[in-house]
Amino acid sequence: MDAPVLALIVVSYNTRDLLETCLKSLTTEAISLQTIVVDNASSDGSAQQVREQFPEVTLIANPDNRGFGAACNQGLRAATARYALILNADIRAEPGALETLFHFMETHPDAAACGGKLLNPDGSIQPSCAGDLTLWAVFCEQTLLAKLFPNTKLFGGYWRTWWDFNQTRAVEQLMGACLLLRREGSQTDAPFPLFDEDYFLYCEDTDLCWRLRQAGGVLYYVHDAVFIHHLGASGESARANMVIYYNRGKERFFRKFHSPLHAKVCRWLNRMGALGRWSLWAALTLMTAGQQARFRQQAGLFWRVFRES
Asked: Residue 59 CA to chain centroid, in angstroms?
């Protein structure tokens, strides 16, 4: 059997059904694959499912939730292939996507990493690359200017919502949901670049992409490698945790690569954004005498984000 040239690293956490769909989509006869699942202590039987239904997959079952970056690093250290593709467990690869990313890296030696086009289940575009993370980007996000004027470069610049996603080009940042990495040296046993494990969830990909570019690497968005990213509905508590981790990740990025003042301004913007959203949903709750569950839930969510961010 040929040695694998592409390692597929899937981090799972309570995504049993989506994980099954993901693994079934990761097949190709054109290149040899190595598939690694790192399970972060799922309680829904995800790890057992991999053992029973996908015995060819290498399973790393963590006794506790180590976070996304740390789990990715476990997979990267275990990978023996030439390239490693990080994938969320809620992603389904469309036919030809794996081959397209692999061949792009083979023909672009300047590429430190590349990522594919992500689509929502309804076929609409899901931003899969971004510009540099700046305080202006945080300001536009927290003041809702990015949502109100998504088609303008001034306000929608960070998530590139003004972009034509049907063109392959170099970008500043790729999403960790679909990120293909090259080894750091020419030797087959050279290490892969690793994530900073101090980010529990979110912005670890921002950090890694920044470091790759600082080292002279080029990052590419590859438009004809298509993946369906199924962002399933989550409970309000889980959504609040996600926003809190995202806010903390942004603050860590600014503290690490810019200054403590940048981090403080980011934290202030995050808190003011949460307070503004809480005010809106709290007002709607009062106006409807608390009869709308969604209004109450959103108010509770952003109050928690304000207190804990």
From this structure: 21
Please identify which residue in the block is written with the tokens 């003042």. 261
Query: Is the Cα dihedral 279, 281, 282, 284 positive or negative?
Result: positive
Report the relative pairing of strands 6-12 and 33-40 from DSSP bridges: parallel
Pair of tokens at residue 55: 């015995």
Name the residue among 5, 27, 6, 2 with its Cα closest to residue 179: 6
CATH T-level fold of 6-128+165-229:
Spore Coat Polysaccharide Biosynthesis Protein SpsA; Chain A (3.90.550)
Rounded (5°) CA angle 193-116-153: 100
pLDDT at position 237 is 57
- Gap between the Cα atoms of 82 and 135, Å rounded: 36
Nearest-angstrom CA–CA distance, 189 and 204: 24
Ranges of each domain in the chain: 6-128+165-229, 236-308
In our burial notation (b when 16+ CB lie closer than 10 A, e otherwise), range 161-185 reads bebebeebeebbbbbbbbbbbbbee
What residue spans of 143-259 are helical by DSSP H? 145-148, 153-156, 204-214, 236-257
78-93: buried (b, 16+ CB within 10 Å) or exposed (e) per residue? Answer: ebebbbbbbbbbbbbb
Q: Residue 291: count other Cβ atoms within 10 Å of its Cβ.
A: 9
Residue 36 in contact with residue 71, Cβ under 8 Å?
Answer: no
Across the chain, which has 309 residues, the per-10-residue mean pLDDT values are 88 93 93 96 94 96 95 97 96 96 97 97 93 97 95 92 93 96 83 96 96 97 96 61 94 97 98 97 95 94 92
Q: How far is residue 306's CA from residue 300's CA, in Å, rounded to a whole number?
A: 10
Tokens standing for residue 110: 């300047």
The residue whose two tokens read 């081959």 is 99
User: Whole-angstrom Cα distance, residue 76 to residue 90?
Assistant: 19
Distances 101 to 63, 176, 221, 236 between C-alpha atoms, Å: 33, 15, 10, 35
- DSSP secondary structure letter of residue 306: H
